[in-house]
Amino acid sequence: MREWLVIITEYAILVIDALALIIIIIGTIEIAIRGLPAMFREKPGHERRDIWLRYARVLIAGLTLQLAADIIESAISTSWESIGRLAAIAVVRTFLNYFLERDMGEVRERQRGESFARARES
Questions:
Q1: Phi and psi dihedrals of 43, rounded to 5?
Q2: What is the pTM (predicted TM-score) of this model?
Q3: Of 96, 31, 102, 52, nearest to 70 (Cα)?
Q4: How far apart are CA 109 and CA 116, in angstroms?
C-alpha cells in the first residue's frame, strides 16, 4: 500500500511542478513581449506597473504551486537530509511569496491613492 502512495505522490509532485513551470514560462514570455517594449516607450507609469503586477501574480502562482509540491514531497521523504533540504526550499519560496505579496499590496495602495487624487481633482 505504501508503495502505491509513494508512486501516486511522485506523479502528483511531477504534475504540480510541471504546472508551475508552465505558468512561470508563459508569464515570462508575456512580460518579455509586453514589458520590455513598455520600458523603452513613453508609456504612463501605471501601465508599466500593471504589467509588472501581472508578472508578480504569475510568480506568486508558480511559487505557491511549487510550495504545494514541496509539502507533498515532505510526506514521502525518508531521510532527515531530504526533509531539511525541502524545509530550506520551502522557507525561501515562502519569503519570496511574502515579499511579492507585500510589494503588490503597496502598489495597489499607491494606485488607489492616485485614483482618489485624480477623482478629487475632477
A1: -90, 145
A2: 0.72
A3: 96
A4: 10
Residues 6 or more apart whose Cβ sits within 8 Å of residue 39: 48
Q: Residue 10's CB: how many other CB atoms inside 10 A?
A: 13
Residues making up the chain, counted from first to last:
122
Q: How far apart are CA 100 and CA 53, in angstroms?
A: 9
Rounded Cα–Cα distance for residues 11 and 29 (Å): 27
Give dist(CA 58, CA 25) in Å, integer: 9
Which triple of cell numbers denotes residue 59? 510568480
Cell numbers found for residue 100: 511579492
| pLDDT tens readout for residues 88-121 | 888 887 888 888 888 878 877 877 777 777 777 7
